[in-house]
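Sample intake sheet
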Amino acid sequence: MQPDPDIEPLLVVGIGSPYGDDRLGWLVIDNLETLCAPLVRTGHIRLLRLDRPTTELLSHITPYRRAILIDALALPGTRDLQVFSVHSLPASPTPSSSHGFGLADTLQLGQTLGLLPEQVEIYGIPMLELPTAQDFDTPSVDLTPHAKQTARLIAQRLTGYCQRTPGSQSLAHTKKPRQA
């Protein structure tokens, strides 16, 4: 089935790595593959997993008007999901991501180069247990109970978008008429 040409697709990117709670973004995508299957099949939603992306992320999100990014972040002082815009994503002297070159750095570069979609939402999942140097020696599928619960909550929240009609304002937007 071909996507409706009058509907702009939504890109949802799960950012992560194979190390403990940093797999959260991937786990949300796993859940959405089932929960949003009809809209994935029709092309209204594209789901993508990226492994510790840096500027690779920009090549994937540039063609879209709307993107939702899901990443496990070091967010001191909170256990709650945080939703950020590109402008509100906290920058820090050390990367807020466990990937080295942080998500905020990547998005700032994309903004400077004019490569970002018109709308970007970042779902920041607080990692309660940050990976240590030893964690990067062996990939682990173990997640903390908090991480599993948070991933389910995010998937359910995004499923609300999936259950609305494809032209609704919260999912894939109807294309704007072109100005003459």
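Comment: The chain has one domain: 10-130+140-162. The first strand starts at residue 10 and ends at 16.
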